[in-house]
Amino acid sequence: MKPAFKRVLLKLSGEALMGDQNYGIDTKVAKSVAEEIKAVYQLGVEIAIVVGGGNIFRGVSKSAGNMDRGSADYIGMLATVMNAVVLQDALEKCDVFTRVLSAIDIPQLAEPFIRRRAIRHLEKGRVVIFGAGTGNPYFTTDSAAALRALEIKADVILKGTKVDGIYSDDPITNPEAIRFDKISYQNVLEKRLKVMDTSAISLCMDNNLPIMVFNMNTSGNIMKAINGDLSIGTLVSLNGKSHSV
After folding, report:
1. Among residues 7, 20, 232, 240, which one has the fewest Cβ atoms lying within 10 Å of its Cβ?
2. Into how many domains does the chain fold?
């Protein structure tokens, strides 16, 4: 099957690398994620990745306590770089050429983020991992994913989560919650659905960049998302009329 997208940005939460642990990185999970990404990479799809840092530190979490928000966010950015380097190592062990580009200057670990360099890496067949969010406090890695996706002219954002799409309510606490297979950005904002933060959704809406939300924990779902299989999650688009399933 021919992939539905040529260039994608995959948004992974830091928790996706945590596995069954309460904290940190499970290298077995990182290896499993890397193998799924490799399968897509071998189809010739250009892949960029933004990974969160919530498995280590989050600026707005309890672990930040009463820290200054700016300082806490910078620590969270460093956590995303740690995850990026771990994922890079897992990918390269799978023989996938990978580059980490950081919005914070850490030359010993990563290249600085330069838009043209990132695009060139993708054109040369390398997976690119963006670390350190946007490089600015008060912005989430969701906003970083939307920004980087637009900068590299990605066809879609693939957002890997713990649930199989967008629901009318939290499906874990409300078994009556309804899942949507398609929904518009406007409906996501009006219903205050917790997909990505409002800044990221607005940025995607203004630039007509679709978002595919799917369950990252189900093996093979990245490949299905690349092939445009809407049965695995929810597609957010400009004119996507809400269809519940």
Report:
1. 20
2. 1
The answer to whether position 1 is within a domain reads: no
Put simply, whether the predicted model's pTM sits higher than 0.90 gets the answer yes
User: Which residue pairs, CB below 8 angstroms and at least 24 apart, start in 73-78?
Assistant: 73/133, 73/137, 73/138, 73/139, 74/104, 74/137, 76/133, 77/53, 77/103, 77/104, 77/131, 77/132, 77/133, 77/135, 78/53, 78/104, 78/132
CA angle, residues 53, 218, 234, in degrees to nearest 5: 80
- Contact (CB, 8 A) for 47 and 36: no
Confidence band for 156, pLDDT divided at 50, 70 and 90: very high
**CATH number of residue 115's parent domain:** 3.40.1160.10
For residue 92, being part of any structural domain is answered with yes
Count helices and strands in the chain by DSSP H and E runs: 7, 11
- Residue 41: inside a domain, yes or no? yes
Give the H or E element holding residue 89. helix 69-93
* Res 241 pLDDT > 70: no
Give the residue among 151, 170, 214, 236 at the shortest CA–CA distance from 12.
Answer: 214
CA dist., res. 23 & res. 34, Å (int): 20
- Are 161 and 213 spatial neighbours (Cβ–Cβ below 8 Å)? yes
Structural domain including 151 reads: 7-244
Rounded Cα distance, 56 and 22, in Å: 10
Instruction: Report if residue 156 sits inside a domain.
Output: yes
CB atoms within 10 A of CB 142: 25
What is the per-residue pLDDT for 151? 98
